Every structure is written in C-alpha cells, then in structure tokens.
Amino acid sequence: MDPEIDFIQQGLSHLATVVDPDLPGWSRVGYSEYDVAGRAWVATQMREAGLRTHVDAVGNVIGVLEGADSAVPAIVIGSHTDTVPGGGRFDGIIGVLGAIEVVRTLQRAGIRLHHQLRVVDFANEEGNAQGVKLVGSRAIAGALTPEHLSAADDTGFTLAELLSSAGHAPERASSCRWDTKEVAAYLELHIEQGPVLEQEGVGIGVVTRVCGISTFVLDVHGRRDHAGTTPMETRQDAMCCAADAVLAVQRIAAAGRDTVGTVGTVTTSSPLTNVISEQARVTGEFRSPEGTVLDALQDQLAQEMHRIDGRHRTSSSLRWGHTDLPAIMDGDLSGIIADAAAQIGHDAVRLYSGATHDSVEMARLAPAGMIFVPSAGGRSHCPEEWTDIAHIEEGVRVLTQSVLNVDAVPTRR
Ligand SMILES: [Zn+2]
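That is the input. Now the predicted structure with zinc ion docked in place:
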C-alpha cells in the first residue's frame, strides 16, 4: 500500500503559494481569503480522489467515501489547513493531504472499506483574534457555544461576524454537530511540533494524551508615585511585581514534571519611565498532560504571588480562565496505530502532545488517536517549521494501515 508521495509534495508546494503576502512565513489565517481559497482547493482534491464533499455551516470541508456496510459508523481522518500568523507549511496540512492520499491509495488498490470513511479539513483549528481555538472540530463535537460565537476581538468584531465574512452561516452552527453514533474512530496524522522523535531517532510517535491548558490573567495593583523622588525601599511598583511574576511562572513550570508555563503579555496603564507603575497586567498559561498537576500549578502560582506581593508592597488578583483538561487518546486505538507501524516495519514511541489538536474535540465523539512524525529541530508555528518528506510518507503509510486495521475490527453500534 504505497502512497503517492508526489501528491503530498505537490499539495504542500501548492498550499505554500496560497498565503497572505502581508504576513511573514506561510500564513493562511483561519477565515481569511487565503484560508477560504485553501479550503476550496482542498475540496477539489477530495472530489478528484472520489469523495463526495460538502462544507458545513462553520466551514469544515468534509469528504465522504461510502463503505460496504451502511449500518456501521464512519472512520474519520483529517486535520486542518489554517495556520497561525507567521506559521509553517506542515502543521495540520500533512494530516489533510495525508488523509486524502489514504483515500487515493485505497482507490488505486481497489479496496472498499466496510466503514464509511470521512475526511475532514477542520475549520480554524489555530484560533483567531476572538480567542476561540478548534472552531470547526468544536462545532462537529457540538461544543461550539453561543458564548464562543459572541466572543469579540479588540475592535468588537465577533466570531460569528468573522464566520459570516468568510461566507459561512454561524446562525446554523448547531447543524454542524455529529452524533457519537456516527463515528467509529478518529485518526489524525500531524507533525510533532516538538523535539522528542528527532532526539530519539524514531519516525513515528503514538500520542497518549494531549496536554491540558490553564490560562490566567494577573492584575497587579501598586501605587503611582514620582520616579525621581520615591525611595526604592518604599515603592509599590506594579511593574516590578509583574516582572517577578513572569519569572515565577518560569520557575514553577521548570520545577514540574512534563509541565510548561508561558507568559504572553505584560502591560501597564502608565507606560512612562518617570512614573512608578500603579497597574500592571500579566497574561499567561500552564500546560500539563495531567489534570491534577494543572490544579497544583494554579495553587503554586497563587502562593508565589502572595510572597511576591509582600516583597513589592503590591496587591495582585489572579484569575484563571477556562481550563482545557488533558484529552486522553484511546488506548485500543493507540495500540492499533502502534501495531500498524510495526506491520510496515517502523519503530514507534509513545509520547504526549504539548500542543492542542482537533483530536481533543473529536475525542468527545469517539475513540481518538494521533500519529506524530518528526519536526526538524522541534520547531513549529514558525517559518522554519520542517518535516522531511520521507517522514511524512512513513506517517501516511501508518495512517493508511491504521485505517485498514480499524476497519477490520467489528464496530458495535
Ligand atoms: Zn496543527
């Protein structure tokens, strides 16, 4: 079952031309004209591969290949083709092209699956200025709420308006929902976006779980005073407290097992050098593959802020946003992927994903599993993102074999 790697190579090259010239890297930001054009091209590729396609109300491009047994649910494969601003050419894209190549490979081999096969290019996985990630898969899982749709960017432009601007129908978002009975399994091929596979010298990763994320907003209250006349030892400098908080996030995350922590912004209401900051705001996040660890990280930062406030004579309020709990990939399906890799002679290692994926939402509907292929230097979400075509080919082979193996397992309805 050899994939035609030329199809993937040419697809990667083509999509690398459907990008926003005003942004760095290979940018096809969700619901931009470039993203709309990219998804239209993907739909054409699906049809040429023999899939019946439709676009749902939030822009998911869905291709269907009927199976021999209409009484069993679908095997779903796919990923996304939108990118972060300044992103790369592989993130998500290899999972969509790889899924279409699975269909092409089956067609060439004259194999008809028992299960229906659905290929999805999920809309806007990477999120938007409205702060909603996984838009398409969330809608399919029935988890895209009115609150998500009314989320607005800094100018008041809502996610619903963004969807409408791209020609979609947010008022019908609930129609995107699939029933759990429709799906037998979800499989996603993706680049690792981290360094583990390259360091271990292994071509295939089987994802055990996807990290949960806790985001926070820290508001620091100090006292506005003259920068020239106020002695250092009596200042209530909100900016200094914020700076200490940034390093506390780094320290706490570095001390944990498999934990990471990042501060995204530090802002002050008085960006002046001759005034001591009265207010500062720090936003950031922690990630962990364990939900209980996320709770512990929250407690640690709260305790640390108590001490830091004491040091700077400030008072801080720490608010946690919604926590995305870790998503557990299905153990049986992970076993099927590992077996598929072994069948075609590839080593595989199990690892967790620090990045989030459409699989998190699809896991609400059905057993979900992910196949990772190496990212050069562990780099991703940057123009330098790279995965060797030989590794992508291995990944597509494992995806194809995994689909065949899932198809061979009788599905209970
Ligand atoms: Zn991705």
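The radius of gyration is 23 Å.
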